[in-house]
Design a protein that fits this description.
Bound molecules: cytidine-5'-triphosphate, calcium ion
Number of helices: 5
Number of strands: 14
Strand content: 25-35%
Largest sheet: 8 strands, mixed
Length: about 230
C-alpha cells in the first residue's frame, strides 16, 4: 500500500501579485497615496506560494512583512510598479491587488517646498499608467489569467462589471470598502467575484481565507485549460 501524493495545485506555475499603495512624491518629504494596508494582496502572494507557485510580489510601501518564500520587489511609485511588473513577465496568472495612485505630481520638486508668502502651492497632477489595463491588453506577454480588484464605496458590482470591460481583465474581485465595513486596514473581507459568466457573492472571511479561496480558483482555471 502507498498513498499517491498529489502535486501542489500551483506547482510549476508563475504568479505575479501587486499589493499595497503607491506613493507619488510632491517633494522629497511629501507624497500623495491611497489607503491600503497590503494585507489582502500579501495574503494572496502567501497563499499562491503555499500552493506551490513561484511567486513574485511587487509591493508598494506597507507595514506588513514580506511573505516567506516569495520574491518581493519593493517599489514606491506607480511608474516603478509598472516597470517591475513588466520586468517579471511572462507569468501564468497576475493578480493586481495594489491600490495604485491614479495621479502623480507632474514635476515633483527636487527640494522641500517651503511655506511662504505665496500661500498654498497648486499641484499639477497627471494620470499614472493603468498597470492592470496595460498588462491585460499586452500584445505578446498577456498572462493566461488576469485578475483585478475593485475597491468601491457604492454600486460595488456595477462598478466592477464596468472595470472588467474597460480594463480587459478576466476577473474582478470587488469589495465595499466604505469606512463602516472595517475592511480597509482590517483582517476580514467580503468580496464578490465578477467574471464574464456572472457574479459570485463570497461569504465574509479572513483575508487569508479569501486569498486561499481565490488561489484555489486560479489553480482550477489554469488546470482547466492545461498548457
Ligand atoms: N490599477 C492599476 N493601475 C492603476 C490604477 C488601477 O493597475 N493606475 C488596478 C488596481 O490594482 C485594481 C484595478 O486596477 O486591480 C482597479 O483599480 P481602481 O482604482 O478601482 O480602478 P480605476 O480604473 O482607477 O477607477 P477609479 O476611478 O474607481 O479609481
Ligand atoms: Ca483608481
Amino acid at each position: 500500500h502507498f498513498k499517491v501524493r498529489e502535486a501542489p495545485p500551483l506547482k510549476g506555475r508563475r504568479i505575479l501579485v501587486t499589493s499595497g499603495p503607491t506613493h507619488e512624491p510632491i517633494d522629497p518629504v511629501r507624497y500623495i497615496a491611497n489607503r491600503s494596508s497590503g494585507k489582502q494582496g500579501h495574503a494572496i502572494a502567501a497563499a499562491a506560494q503555499a500552493a506551490g507557485a513561484e511567486v513574485v510580489l511587487v509591493a508598494g510601501p506597507v507595514e506588513v512583512p514580506d511573505p516567506r518564500g516569495v520574491r518581493v520587489i519593493h517599489v514606491e511609485s506607480a511608474r516603478e510598479m509598472i516597470a517591475a511588473v513588466e520586468e517579471n513577465l511572462p507569468v501564468d496568472a497576475a493578480v493586481f491587488a495594489a491600490a495604485v495612485a491614479d495621479w502623480r505630481v507632474a514635476d515633483a520638486a527636487e527640494q522641500k517646498i517651503k511655506k511662504g508668502a505665496d500661500g498654498a502651492p497648486a499641484l499639477h497632477l497627471v494620470e499614472n499608467p493603468d498597470i492592470l489595463a496595460s498588462i491585460a491588453r499586452h500584445h505578446t506577454l498577456r498572462p493566461r489569467l488576469v485578475v483585478g480588484f475593485a475597491a468601491e464605496t457604492e454600486r460595488v458590482v456595477a462598478h466592477a462589471r464596468e472595470k472588467l470591460a474597460r480594463k480587459g481583465c478576466d476577473w474582478i474581485v470587488a469589495n465595499d470598502v466604505s469606512p463602516a465595513t472595517g475592511i480597509m486596514g482590517g483582517d476580514a473581507n467580503t468580496v464578490h467575484l465578477v467574471t464574464a459568466g456572472g457574479v459570485e457573492d463570497w461569504p465574509s472571511a479572513s483575508k487569508s481565507e479569501v486569498a486561499r479561496h481565490l488561489v484555489a480558483r486560479i489553480a482550477a482555471e489554469l488546470a482547466g485549460g492545461n498548457a
